[in-house]
Amino acid sequence: MQTRSLSRELALLVLSQCAERDRSLSVDSLEVLLQKALESLMQHWREVLDRCAADLEKAQQSLLDSELQEGSTAAVMPVRDHLRESLSNAEQVLNGLSASLELPRLLALADQEMVQKEAMRRIQLVLDARPSLDDQLDGVMEGWRLSRLPRIDRDILRLAVVDLQSMQTPASVACNEAVELANRYSDEQGRRMINGVLRRLQNASSQAVS
Question: Of 5, 9, 33, 31, which Cα lies nearest the Cα of 19?
Fold first, then answer.
């Protein structure tokens, strides 16, 4: 995870703790919320490690069960089922571990002043321009209002617009990372909605420029 991605995720966690009516918060208040966001993120990483351990244990048990049944002709189908389950569990473990192996670096990055400053900048940009951001997003919602979306989806979209318009983030990167946040904090419907809204926003911006 790059510095930008980490600062964006921290910003999202802080914004989720701010009231929708807040236009600005004191530096002290934001720093308190940022520390809470860091604690939440670290807890998430620890839970990922715990899930990896549980998945690994499950995969090992499944393989053991398969070996115990291997000698029986009547058990060929159960053995195959166990092997499929074992492979699936092993894949989950590998996917989880690939993220968890980043944990020491992520913890070090999260404590860096640069990451926290960038997160604070993103938060303040959203708070300062939230009405304008919401108007832009409402303009491309196609039959929906931004206010009808879950709070986490609204904040992911607002951060993406800030990326596009204030942080000079390439459109493909901003959209992809917004979808990644949706994968972790929203659901499939939210992910599709966020992807579609940002695509339409980009199309509208391109037409305005041309």
Answer: 33
